[in-house]
Predict the structure.
Amino acid sequence: MNSQLISFNILNIISRQWSCFIVVLVSVLFVAVSYLIFTQSKYESVAELVVTFGGRSTPEVNRAPTTELTPSDRREIVLSHAALLNSHDLARAVIEAFGIAAVYPRIVAEPPSRGTPMDEAVKTFLADLSVEVGAQDNIITLSLRHPDRRLAPKLVQKLIDLYVERQTDIYHNPHEEFLAREVQQVGARLAAAQSALEQFKGQWHITDYDKEVEDLLSQRGDLDTDLHAAKANLAQSQQRQKELQQLMRRVPEKLPESASSEKYRALDDARSRLADLHTKRSQMLATYAPNSPALASLNAGIATAEAEVTARSAELNNRSTTVPNTVYQTLQTDYLRTNAEAESNIQPVQVLTEQVAAIDNRLHTLQQNRGMLANLQREHQIAEEAYRTLSLQYADARVRGNLNDQRISPAVVISAPTEPYKTVRPRKFITLVASLFGGALLATATALLREAFNDRFTTAEQVALLLDLPVLASLEQQSPRIPPEILALGGAE
């Protein structure tokens, strides 16, 4: 019942404030129509860009592992691209490319009272420009509203072109020339280090230090074993030679030849006669005096016999011969063989000793030059690593420079600027519907407000509600049908 009473009261008030309601509604509609008539129509051109990441955006010269971007990092990159598209300088560059007179002739015709026409044009351009980024993707939607249907897509395309150029300027690697000079300097340093290292190796005949030392130590071990064996053989030969010399001193070189019976028969006869004479003398001494003529004759015969024996012995000694000693000859043969063996063992010892001494000298030389060689190798390694690193950076800088020269950007156009065929501003139907609805609400609110400030009784319902008495009669120009509930309110207790 209350809703019916309220709706009835509102309609009753509107009927009483009909002129005010109509004036407010018509005013709102008039303003809306005036807005639609005098507002400049604008067309919208839309383009879409996609921002690529990692190896899909720019090729990497250095194949080192790269860090994967997090979603927040990707989001920040996409937002930075969107901010670049919506920058003041980029908008100014687009307007300057076509000219203010071509883009916004109304601003040229009616310059602003404050600021320059370019500032107003940039402000208008940014107000008509919309750069939106998807919530979960890397798509940038670019839209521009402009009065000229044919110029709108050109402005959007120019904005994209200038954005790519500006992006290449921003992300351009300014160190390309610096890296080129550094690579040249490090290359010269590497060449000098390599030349010094090669010269040092050539001077001391060093190819591979560690390998050569390992081979020399291995050779020295083998030679040392052979040298000890050769010295042992030589010492054994010399000891054998000394022993043979001592044996040869004790063994006669020749032996006398054994005498035959024919050679000693005369000597034996002479010795037999001498023995017989001595026997006979002994017998005669028993009977004869020592100075007797018989003993004197016998003594003379004994002297003759002794002389004969002596002569025969001397003759036999003069005629005796010697033969070689076979034992001595065997010892002499062994000695000569041992002497030859000892002499043959001397040369291997000398050769092996010289080879060991040469290896020791070489090892000593390598040991002395180890520090210098290590320094040269370290300098060469440092220069080579620096040259490799700078070369990769320089190659990467050249690739990025070529990408900039070719205007290759991580942001790729996936939807070219559209050619508009109808206006998007102002929206006539929506504006009319909104103005009609809003005007009705505003007119109703105005009528209610005006009725609230009016203290006169205008209806029988107001008298009945205020006096709490029933209405007996009502004289009005129009007698609306009063609901029975209101008429009954006067007598209700």
About this structure: The CA atoms of residues 4 and 227 lie 133 Å apart. The radius of gyration is 71 Å. Confidence is low (pLDDT under 50) at residues 1-8, 55-59, 489-493.
